[in-house]
What we know:
The protein is of the alpha+beta class. The chain has helices spanning 9-19, 36-42, 113-119, 131-149, 155-179, 187-202, 209-216, 220-231, 235-253, 258-264, 270-281, 285-291; strands spanning 25-26, 30-33, 49-50, 54-61, 63-68, 71-76, 79-83, 88-94, 99-105, 125-128.
Amino acid sequence: MKTIENVNASQVKDRISSVSRPQNLLAKHFILVRQSDVVMQQARFGQPMRLNERRFLHILNGQAVYRINLLDYTLRQGDFLVLPPDTIVEVVSISDDYAVEALLIIDLSGIDHETAKRLFPVDVLRLSLSEEDVRRVGAYFDLLSVQIAREEHSDSAISFLILSMMADMNKLQQTLASSCSHRKLSRSEEIMSRFVTLLRQYGTRERNIPFYASQLAITANHLSDVVRQQSGLSVMDWLNRTTITEAKVLLKHSDLMIYEIGERLNFPEPTAFNRYFKKHVGMTPLEYRENN
Length: 292
């Protein structure tokens, strides 16, 4: 039986130790990666990954498309991303000149839970930075490098520096949000947003359109029309994406038996799960597990 395999801090530390470059810094509670090839080594196209720890990404060059919690994000130079724990990420594409620096936060030493909860977003935060903001974020990363590289560094000092950076990003996000506050979501945009939220809550077990239409108090036909208009995908496309993403994560990163995964995903019997997975992925769950 496979042992549980998570995309976590220990794996990143192993990658960095094997590369052994001064730009990549390890500490007990933090990992700072400024050498993009370490990040690239973790990128497995088409393989969703569940991240255990909170991460910051700062895009330095090029372009990438990440599927994050079912939604596609096109990331470009100057973008800054905060990924909370338990985020599911799938790399869709990366340009040849893609470069990124990343901070992985295992624990905020000396910071009380309520302070961290207040400052860090519960959902994905994506900001497109101005040139001035890019320089400021770069300065934060430089300061973090200096602090973490110190032989007797202070975890508390590093934690407070990270909090300062996060507070700065929150202020920027609030400024950007206020500049767009005059525009309210249309009814269709609101339905789409609520539908995606419902997918995260129920999507791995509920795969029928009437269920979501009922939750939104609209007809199934209206939901189908809105989702197609807003996303270019059908409701079933979204439901299948949700189920297949979770199935891939469980096949890759858990020691659950395949029939147990089928049960968790609310399939009536193992053969139904096998047929469903093969239809959408092109191979059986067992073949996928062994080939990945």
